[in-house]
Amino acid sequence: MKILLTGATGFLGKIISDELNKDHEIIKLSRTSADYNVLLDEETVEFKESFDMVIHSAGKAHFSPKTEIENKSFHNVNVIGTKNLLKSLERVGAPREFVFISSVSVYGQDVGIEINEEFPLKACEPYGLSKIEAEKIVIKWCQEHKVVCTILRLPLLVGKNPPGNLGAMLKAIRKGYYFNIDGGKARKSMVLAKDVPSFILLSCSAGGVYNLTDGVHPSFTELSYAISDKLFFSLPLKIARCISRIGDSLGDKAPLNSNKLKKITSDLTFDDSKAREIIGWKPESVLEYLKREKLL
Question: Which of 37, 65, 85, 146 is the most exposed place for a label (fewest CB within 10 A)?
Answer without folding.
Answer: 146
